[in-house]
Amino acid sequence: MDIMVQVSSVVGIGGSEELGPAWLKPMLGGEYFMNCGIHADSNKSECNLFCLDCMGNALCSYCSLRHKDHRLVQIRRSSYHNVVRVSEIQRYIDISCIQTYVINSAKIVFLNQRPQPRPGKGITFTCQICHRGLPDSFRFCSLGCKMNGIKRGDRELSFSLKNKHGRELMYDEMESDYEASTPRKMQRGNYMLESSSSGEDDVGGNSLSPATPPLYNHTNSSRRKGVPHRAPF
Q: Under a CB-based contact definition with an 8 Å cutoff, are residues 106 and 78 in contact?
């Protein structure tokens, strides 16, 4: 109940499926980076994972083991605001029209609005909901602001993904399509794999290892030398 009250204060009240999948509101309104009440004495007990299937409270890495067959998304921090990586969230919803940023070599989007008292000088683009200044020509600064844009009745906006034929997929279709095309083992470890591989710089395949030295010809080295001859006077 507490979660739903907090969610309504962030993204407004409304239960229509047009506003996004059922897990979107709980994810936006969740409380993250708190110490887990069950594993408070353990390392890595910070609650920064959200289960899209259970839609409950944030999970720590130990609690996530009980959700091993579920879809987990890792919530991160940037300037004291909650963010999620584009590579994780775009599997489930359409994040078009939302400003993206690059942090630690990975694209991210903010979960909720970040209103400014007044836009800075030279600002050309602003969020249509909270009026935050944006560096690029996007309409919204966060997932929550796009949701409020949909609530205003803009029919061009949607969180639904489209298939290769341009048809919008229902949210249950998107989930089943992802589950069918992704091995279970990969689904469980998506947030772990992306977290550990985001800083790799050797994408181009360049290697700094030394070249393999040429083989030494032992046959020639063991050949017996001839009798030396003295040079003529």
A: no
Task: Give the tokens for residue 108.
Answer: 């991210």
- Token pair 């004495």 is at which residue? 41
Confidence of residue 71 (pLDDT cuts 50, 70, 90): very high
Rounded to whole angstroms, the Cα distance separating 42 from 70 reads: 23
- Are 62 and 89 in contact by the 8 Å Cβ rule? The answer is no
Instruction: Give residue 163's pLDDT band: very low, low, confident or very high (50, 70, 90).
Output: confident
CB count in 10 Å sphere of residue 82: 23
> Would you call 4 helix, strand, or coil by DSSP?
helix
- Contact status, residue 71 vs residue 56, Cβ threshold 8 Å: no
Give the Cα separation of 171 and 233 in Å (integer).
Answer: 99
Q: Give dist(CA 201, CA 164) in Å, integer.
A: 32
Cα(95)–Cα(182) distance, rounded to whole angstroms? 21
Q: Dump strand ranges (E) for the chain.
A: 49-51, 72-78, 81-85, 101-103, 106-110, 125-126, 133-134
Vertex 228, ends 222 and 231: CA angle to 5°? 145
